[in-house]
Design brief:
381 residues; mainly beta; Immunoglobulin-like; Tie2 ligand-binding domain fold; 5-stranded mixed β-sheet; 33 strands; binds 2-acetamido-2-deoxy-beta-D-glucopyranose; disulfide bond; EGF; EGF-like domain
Amino acid sequence: MVWLGPPLLLPIVFLASHVGAASDLTLLADLRRTEPQRFFLTCVSGEAGAGRGTDAWGPALQLEKDDRIVRTPRPWPPPQLARNGSQRITLRGFSRPSDLVGVFSCVGGAGARRTSVLYVHNSPGAHLLPDQVTHTVNKGDTAVLSARVSKEKQTDVIWKSNGSYFYTLDRHEAQDGRFLLRLPNVQPSSSGIYSATYLEASPLGSAFFRLIVRGCGAGRWGPGCTKECPGCLHGGVCHDQDGECVCPPGFTGTRCEQACREGRFGQSCQEQCPSTGGCRGLTFCLPDPYGCSCGSGWRGSQCQEACAPGHFGADCRLQCQCQNGGTCDRFSGCVCPSGWHGVYCEKSGLSDWAHGSASTEMHDTDEGYFGGHVSAVAAPG
Ligand SMILES: *[C@@H]1O[C@H](CO)[C@@H](O)[C@H](O)[C@H]1NC(C)=O
Ligand SMILES: *[C@@H]1O[C@H](CO)[C@@H](O)[C@H](O)[C@H]1NC(C)=O
């Protein structure tokens, strides 16, 4: 592997420094298979076409297990890394269940845009399992990490942050079969990997979490947090340093106002999930502060459950509430009968191109293929 020394790196940093946005980088983990031999991770970059010269000079995509915090036995034989062009890299060929547990990172993009994306894998056979692995919260919020008892043990539970002792919960403090860690008034320095482990149990049986704390309060960004976020839709998260929306998989646009066609992802919907089953069973990790989620239309710890009627989007977190005969599409939201449009199909009239939100919110992202439902322009709430 070629590593660029400082003399070469400096001009790249200079060239790239005017571009604020996070890299278009997605780390996918295949949760459909629990056997380590069939598990794989793929990291996809949407950058090469756009950034031509930069990409030719830039360091390659990297994908590896990061054992600095979660230390597990070294995978043996080592998993195989396969590159497909400069934009796609896959890690597969694991042998033991313990090879999968822990943190994986993909690093991509060049210069100032070099970004690392993390994925945290929990063993399905663990004593404790996270109700939700990644949590993104704002500075000053209260974060609650919840570890669900899967195989009970009669011992206390130890919480760790970044691998160091943090807190003990008495075994009788479980609520509804869950051990909760409440973190009031979180600060960016509280970000990191958290784990809950039964005392004297194997660390491999822990519930592992990732907490991401934005550097500003809700809806704010910038130095001193004086700037207002654009109002990211559909579950997009406002980047605290550049004010841009990191859109959930399956959504695009400066405010994530547009749904991709089913099975598509990437900043301009340029990537496609494997055709069999679409994005079922895949978890998508994006640059911070987004973290990870299922693809649009899917939910559950293995991302194998379709959204319940009336719900849509990544992890099915959005609600349709369609009016006037609109039907809920779990990938894009309300699909309106002709004559109606708007997020809830609440607007009548053929078209309002001149002042409609759809036309004003379409920016430089329309090179990809979109579902084109005008109704997916904004999110409820
Ligand atoms: C490389 O990726 C392309 C899509 O980007 C795919 O069509 C092709 O089959 C891949 N090749 C290998 C060897 O995986
Ligand atoms: C965990 O490690 C990260 C990266 O080194 C650091 O930024 C963060 O403050 C640490 N968090 C805690 C709670 O120690």
